[in-house]
Amino acid sequence: MLRLAFPARAVQNIYTSTLARSSTSFTVKRSKYTLPDLPYDYNALEPIISADIMKVHHEKHHQAYVNGLNVAEEKFDQALKDKDVISQIALQPALKFNGGGHINHSLFWANLAPKKEGGGEPPNGELLSAIKKEFDTLENFISKFNTLTAAVQGSGWGWLGYNKTTKRVEIVTLPNQDPLTTHVPLLGIDVWEHAYYLQYKNARPDYLKAVWEVVNWKTVAARFENAK
């Protein structure tokens, strides 16, 4: 379960921070972030996503966000200890970028599954009903999602999120590694070029069209159920 945690309240974390407080100061005890294992082999999503892409994406790019987040939090902890507010503020972009990158990719890997394990099988039940309520059909949803996500300038993500206020599913696009904090993230598709360029070159729409063949709708449905 992803949880909001100190210090970056707007950024979801996937570990537990322990705050030991006294009357005049507090110490933050943290465990290091680590790269999560993939729930399938690097070649399991072929031919939709190649093993080369998956290996580089996971071992190099996601690992870089994990490393960057650990470094940023160590510096932030020191700034807290030193009561250095300027440094605390200056570190927020690094916390957001690397923390968002870690969160987004951890969600993304679980959003995918090999075809032999149900990847690409369409949703049903309450999730499908919620999608149809907003978009009439699953096909209309995918078309609109692809159009909006393909239009992300530079690098970013397309999301299907659950709005707890309106109790509706909605499409949200975000730049860079900004995490989805306005909705409960149900389904995220990475449109940074490192997610597809080795195979699809600059044809982002082709990648978006193909990726649905390995989307793990069971995970999306479970997140939807937990979000309600």
UniProtKB/TrEMBL annotation:
<dbReference type="InterPro" id="IPR019832">
    <property type="entry name" value="Mn/Fe_SOD_C"/>
</dbReference>
<dbReference type="GO" id="GO:0030145">
    <property type="term" value="F:manganese ion binding"/>
</dbReference>
<dbReference type="GO" id="GO:0004784">
    <property type="term" value="F:superoxide dismutase activity"/>
</dbReference>
<feature type="domain" description="Manganese/iron superoxide dismutase N-terminal">
    <location>
        <begin position="32"/>
        <end position="113"/>
    </location>
</feature>
<dbReference type="InterPro" id="IPR019833">
    <property type="entry name" value="Mn/Fe_SOD_BS"/>
</dbReference>
<keyword id="KW-0049">Antioxidant</keyword>
<feature type="binding site">
    <location>
        <position position="194"/>
    </location>
    <ligand>
        <name>Mn(2+)</name>
    </ligand>
</feature>
<keyword id="KW-0479">Metal-binding</keyword>
<dbReference type="InterPro" id="IPR019831">
    <property type="entry name" value="Mn/Fe_SOD_N"/>
</dbReference>
<dbReference type="InterPro" id="IPR001189">
    <property type="entry name" value="Mn/Fe_SOD"/>
</dbReference>
<dbReference type="InterPro" id="IPR050265">
    <property type="entry name" value="Fe/Mn_Superoxide_Dismutase"/>
</dbReference>
<comment type="similarity">
    <text>Belongs to the iron/manganese superoxide dismutase family.</text>
</comment>
<feature type="binding site">
    <location>
        <position position="57"/>
    </location>
    <ligand>
        <name>Mn(2+)</name>
    </ligand>
</feature>
<protein>
    <recommendedName>
        <fullName>Superoxide dismutase</fullName>
        <ecNumber>1.15.1.1</ecNumber>
    </recommendedName>
</protein>
<feature type="domain" description="Manganese/iron superoxide dismutase C-terminal">
    <location>
        <begin position="123"/>
        <end position="223"/>
    </location>
</feature>
<comment type="function">
    <text>Destroys radicals which are normally produced within the cells and which are toxic to biological systems.</text>
</comment>
<keyword id="KW-0464">Manganese</keyword>
<keyword id="KW-0560">Oxidoreductase</keyword>
<dbReference type="InterPro" id="IPR036314">
    <property type="entry name" value="SOD_C_sf"/>
</dbReference>
<feature type="binding site">
    <location>
        <position position="190"/>
    </location>
    <ligand>
        <name>Mn(2+)</name>
    </ligand>
</feature>
<dbReference type="Pfam" id="PF00081">
    <property type="entry name" value="Sod_Fe_N"/>
</dbReference>
<dbReference type="GO" id="GO:0005739">
    <property type="term" value="C:mitochondrion"/>
</dbReference>
<dbReference type="InterPro" id="IPR036324">
    <property type="entry name" value="Mn/Fe_SOD_N_sf"/>
</dbReference>
<feature type="binding site">
    <location>
        <position position="105"/>
    </location>
    <ligand>
        <name>Mn(2+)</name>
    </ligand>
</feature>
<dbReference type="Pfam" id="PF02777">
    <property type="entry name" value="Sod_Fe_C"/>
</dbReference>
